[in-house]
Amino acid sequence: MFRTMRIYRRSLGAHFRSLLEYEADFWVLIVAGAMFNALNLLFLSAVFAHVPALNGWSYAEAVLLMGVWSVIGGLSPLFFEGVWRLSWMVNQGTLDYPLVRPAPVTVQVFSSGIGLHGVGDIVTGGAMLGWALFHVDVDWTPLTVVIGLVLLASAATIHLSIIAITNAATFWISGPHPFLAIAVHTFEDMIKYPLTIYGAGIRAVYTFVVPFAFVTFFPVSWLLDRSAGWVGLLGPLVAAYCVWLARTVFRRGLRRYDSSGH
Amino acid sequence: MKPYLSMFLMSARRTFAYRLSALIGWLGGGAILISSLSVWHALLGEGAIAGYDWPMMKAYLVVAWAAGSIGASQGDWRMADRIREGHVATDLTKPVDYQGSRFAEHAGGLATEIPAILIAASAVIAFTGSIPGPANVFLFLLSFACVVPLKFCFTYLTAMLCFWTHNFMGISWAKDAIIWLFSGGLIPLSMLPVWLSVPASLLPFAGITATPAALYLGQATGAEAARLLGLQVFWVLALWFGARLLWRGALRALTVHGG
Amino acid sequence: MGLVKAQSLTKVFRRPQKGPGLRGSVKHLFQRRFKDVPAVNGIDVSIEAGEAVAYVGPNGAGKSTTIKLLCGILVPTSGSVEVAGVTPHVDRIANARNIGVLFGQRSQLWWDLPVRESLGLLRDMYDLPKGFYQQRIERLDEVLGIGELMPVLARKLSLGQRMRADLAAALLHQPRIVYLDEPTIGLDIAVKDKVRKFLRELRADGTTLMLTTHDLGDIEDVCERIIIIDEGRKIFDGPLAQMKDSFARTRRMHLHITDGTPMDVIAKHLSTADVSGEGSEVTIAFDRFAHTAGQIIAAVLQVAEVGEFHLDEPAIEDVVRKVYAGELLV
Ligand SMILES: Nc1ncnc2c1ncn2[C@@H]1O[C@H](COP(=O)(O)OP(=O)(O)OP(=O)(O)O)[C@@H](O)[C@H]1O
Ligand SMILES: [Mg+2]
User: Fold this and answer.
1) Which residue, by CA, sits nearest to atom 6 of ligand 1?
2) For residue C111, is pLDDT > 90?
């Protein structure tokens, strides 16, 4: 376990250093990552200048939701960027070498790249989250803090598992680009707003089929003690299920891997 | 004209070859449209905001989405990659204008997009009612036609930055973010704070969403409409010829550095 | 007891049969039709510790596929594999510690990192102690000259440099068993020689080696056993020398006749050999088990004056070529 973590860190670190070579690009990427979040925030601010609430969510509450989404969204490029290369690796047969090394294939794949724009997401998202936590109405107890952190970790796990599962679909739907994963990922953008603004169909799909609702909406609802907030407490269970599913899909997929014809 | 026509056709055909990635691009745009429609539906439930009621906002969002989608499948990547991978040298040996060639290719992608946009937009409008008068539609189409060269100029100018940086992704995002904000794609410009909305209305980005939407919704008529269209045309010309100047400078840099 | 053992090893690829274009793809979604391609078809191999085996066959014979099965990249369709007591595709990680693999057409270096970083990452994966790692790097620098490549980004290496760095990466952890799939592909003579010399040293260290190649020079230099496969089936397995004996019976002697004796006179005199040539240059092909070279030259001297002469030793190249061409049945 420690060895795995070390390999992961080493690999990410090496790619990080290689990115630092082009200093200008480094800053452009981070700033560009931050920019979209700043615009999302600007949107909320502009809107709330005219209305007191969005579907019962106050400004601070909506910012909290968006902050959670940005922080979690920033984790995947930063720590998980390599998963987006899986399709290419499978298609080109370059998964051969990870398979003959004594480390988990997933670790080698996930850490094979780094997306610096994640830094922008996490910094701006963190700022939104921090500001909002001061301004929302929550009875803080040590237990709330602990549960809150557990739910945040679960949310991140669910988000990353879904990315992993959709990317692993490449073992079945061959092709050099992860189209399914990209499509699903774009739809995930919708969870930056409270789920209640969407129709019943979307709410059902985002809860039961692709559990994006557990990434932002349910955990934040729990913290804010809204109706049906208790559903948020199921986060760890959903996360465990998603991890199990991702593992199974990966295992099955790797057995189907047939390299390439040379 | 013939080489440009063949580049146009080639590029049109290529979008069919990349239909899956184009489709994904469309789905992504659809997701954004759904979420912005839903947010505004929730927001406008209580009453109009800054002069926009729900039917108006719906029309505004559909226009913004159409303006955002057009040219999207043409990815800035191809242009940037040509520069990054040094194909420019080969392009320059051909007896055609570089900027013109890229525009022909860019426009080729529209051949597949315009029908799709028309179908999707008319479906939304048919469902939601509120069809504007013929004068509005005419002005809107004039203005929408300017969106194509405008977006091309932004893409072309940003791709040129690849002469100086290696990583195009960040630049492309920064461009998208700026356009999103200043065009009115994020939120109608009139809802922005004044220190943002005034410069935004004069900058070229407004021509991408705010201007066609204002004409479609009938917010600008008569002299005001003419002024908006004039501004749009002015920016198209200014950017087109500005790009030529910059390109010349870039080439000089290229030869100084020894290619 | 072999160190590497495979029994009736079989791998069948399913190749989708799609019509051309979008129509073909859509149709394939509903009517899935596949064609089975048996790439490896019931192969038995057993390799002892310390052996160096050449694995040869024409393009598409199934060499690379066999190697991928032996190192656990592919799961066999049927049959069994055991390498140093573990089944590679089941106990992937345990197996990975025993083996080193190089696919000549493809690099395992992280292409956007300097060589040093790639080796450092591998060091962590194989859990190599610092002293051992340093010692290995020094050793690999001696024989492969990788020292100068350390700070270079992998994507900036030339082919020969890349292959040297890749060899170093594959052998960094001093594996007991090494599989090399075309380790000299695309290299110039000088680098090829360097790589071959390195492989000989590797053998001398007692490493078990399995090598596929189309360059038969590699084989004669490095291996003492050869396995030939074609269309997924084994057609020869034995010592290189034995193969030469069994299949390279014909030797050729080239002579320069100085007294103008016509060729047919010599041909008449040597009725059991095959005489050909033009003017004063004569080539005599004879069965090495029927005559010695001395007997042939003595016979020629009875009828003609000979200036220069030389003898072609049977080249493994000819043999393999004949086996490929189906002229020799094993
Ligand atoms: N991933 C794959 N999917 C489908 N068919 C494959 C795959 N890999 C190999 N094949 C087929 O299996 C057969 C054997 O291929 P293999 O790569 O093992 O040949 P090889 O002996 O290494 O040939 P070469 O000398 O050209 O490298 C070929 O017909 C090839 O087309
Ligand atoms: Mg091969």
Assistant:
1) A261
2) no
* pLDDT tens for each residue of A3-26: 888 889 988 888 888 877 777 777
The answer to whether the CB atoms of A257 and C112 lie below 8 A apart is no
**CA atoms within 13 Å, Cβ hemisphere of A188:** 25
Ligand 1 atom with least separation from CA of A262: 17
Taking residue C222's Cβ as centre, other Cβ atoms within 10 Å add up to 23
Among A32, A183, A197, the residue with its CB nearest the CB of B39 is: A197
> What single letter denotes the amino acid at residue C263?
M
Inter-chain Cβ pairs, chain A and chain B, closer than 8 A? 104
Residues C183-232: tens digit of each pLDDT: 988 888 888 888 888 899 888 889 999 999 888 788 888 898 999 898 89
Least Cα distance to A242 among A185, A166, A150, A184 occurs for A166
C87: CA distance to ligand 1 center in Å?
22
Where along chain B do its domains lie? 2-256
pLDDT range class, residue A68, cuts 50, 70, 90? very high
Higher per-residue confidence, C29 vs B168: B168
- Closest atom of ligand 1 relative to the A261 alpha carbon: 8
Q: How far apart are CA A51 and CA A61, in angstroms?
A: 14
In which region does residue A234 sit, left (phi positive, over 0), alpha (psi from -120 to 50) or beta (all else)? alpha
Task: Extract the tokens encoding A21.
Answer: 């070579």
Q: Tell whether pTM > 0.90.
A: no
On whether the CB atoms of residues A80 and A110 are closer than 8 A, the answer is yes
- For strand C281-287 and strand C274-278, is the pairing parallel, antiparallel, or unpaired? antiparallel
Question: What 3-state class would DSSP assign to C195?
Answer: helix
Residue C315's pLDDT is 65
| Complete edge-to-edge strand list for the sheet that includes strand C34-47 | C34-47, C4-16, C78-83
pLDDT tens-digit series, residues C66-87: 999 999 999 999 999 999 999 9
CA of A261 to the centre of ligand 1 (A): 4
How is C50-78 classified by DSSP, letter by letter? T-EEEEE-STTSSHHHHHHHHTTSS--SE
Measuring from atom 10 of ligand 1, which residue has the nearest CA? A261
Domains by residue range for chain C, with CATH: 50-72+84-245 (3.40.50.300), 249-313 (3.30.70.260)
| CB-ligand 1 contact for C16 (6 Å cutoff) | no
Phi–psi pair at C106, nearest 5 degrees:
-140, 140
Q: ipTM of the assembly?
A: 0.84
CB-count burial class (<10 Å; 0-12, 13-18, 19+) for C256: middle
Q: Please give the structure tokens belonging to residue A257.
A: 């891997």
A176 — phi, psi (to 5°)? -75, -10
